[in-house]
């Protein structure tokens, strides 16, 4: 059973770059047809999709964050990563990584998110 | 403000049936399938319903989903105390996944 685990600094200063890694266990990140996504949730608020990557390296980002987001993959480590630049307090949130299955006719972001990582809280503050 | 519109709260007593609505537009629900996620307090979201009305293995058949036009609904029958959670709908919208703002379900 595939499991995802986020890791990275819990505190980032304003204007700096937020960097997180998602480690995939119980299966290869390169096997099957899946997209690997990042999703965030500010405290007490709803979910926001950040973007996704395929193991080929192709990416798709939320237009609202596109100018600041980079998602990359390291198949040798079974990991994918998120970088969000020029952060502000508005970027404070729990960040989740998730897998999305790709089937015939699926939209560019995949079909649905399953499983999810447990999430990691990132606070932007000086 | 979320692209998909959900009621912020819903409630019911044990054994009752409750429904949660999700309203969108032609660019999201109107042209793509809808998924539902359940988020228990302090935990990550979990897939509850996919492709409008399909249940993943392990999800009780008390949970059901439907879609019509630009709206979708989640129904929970035989409400149980462990169903108290936040529920989110989601759909692809042109160039990004969009979510509803979430509905907090309280079991009275």
List keywords for this structure.
heterodimer; A: seven-stranded mixed sheet; four-stranded antiparallel sheet; globular; B: six-stranded mixed sheet
Describe this structure in words.
The complex is a heterodimer of chains A (126) and B (108). Chain A is mostly beta strands and 126 residues long. Chain A has strands at residues 3-7, 11-12, 18-25, 34-41, 48-53, 59-61, 69-74, 79-84, 93-101, 113-116, 120-124. In chain A, the strands form 2 sheets. In chain A, strands 2, 4, 5, 6, 9, 10 and 11 form a 7-stranded mixed β-sheet that branches. Chain A is globular, with a radius of gyration of 14 Å. The mean pLDDT of chain A is 94. Helices cover 0% and strands 46% of the residues of chain B. In chain B, the strands form 2 sheets. In chain B, strands 1, 3, 4, 7, 8 and 9 form a 6-stranded mixed β-sheet that branches. Chain B has a 3-stranded antiparallel β-sheet with strand order 2-6-5, with no helix packed on it. Chain B is globular, with a radius of gyration of 13 Å. In chain B, 41% of the residues are buried. At the A-B interface, strand 10 of A face strand 7 and strand 8 of B.
